Amino acid sequence: MQWSGVYMTTLVAVLGTTISPYPFFWQATQEVEEDRDRGKVTLAQRKCATEREKQDSKVDVMTGASFSKCSGRRRLTACWLRR
Question: Which of 35, 53, 66, 72 is deepest in the core (most CB within 10 A)?
């Protein structure tokens, strides 16, 4: 095993594709648990989102997307400066 650029790229790709799906399942499970804590125990009760839940989701997605974009730009800038 050599610590070459190809090896590191492959390692990051494998870890990224393995770990990335996990947060989606975790988030969905967490949302169901929160609904149950609020008294929504049946599927019919959990089917529709309230306006507050829609707004909270929008803020959550926008915040996550902003952090993701900043992180990606930071990595691209670091790679560009490293050349």
Answer: 35
Q: Is the pTM of this model over 0.90?
A: no
* Per-residue pLDDT, 83: 66
**Residue 40 near residue 54, CB atoms below 8 Å:** no
Could you give the number of structural domains in the chain? 1
Q: What is the pLDDT of residues 38-82, one digit of tens each?
A: 888 888 887 887 888 889 889 988 998 888 888 878 877 887 777
Which DSSP letter does residue 42 get? Answer: S
| 39 torsion bin: left (phi>0), alpha (psi -120 to 50), beta (else) | left
Residue 60's domain comprises 5-82
Q: Residue written as tokens 């989606």?
A: 24
Buried b (16+ CB within 10 A) or exposed e, 3-19: eeeeeeeeeeeeeeeee
Q: Any residues with CB less than 8 A from the CB of 49 and at least 6 apart, and which?
A: 57
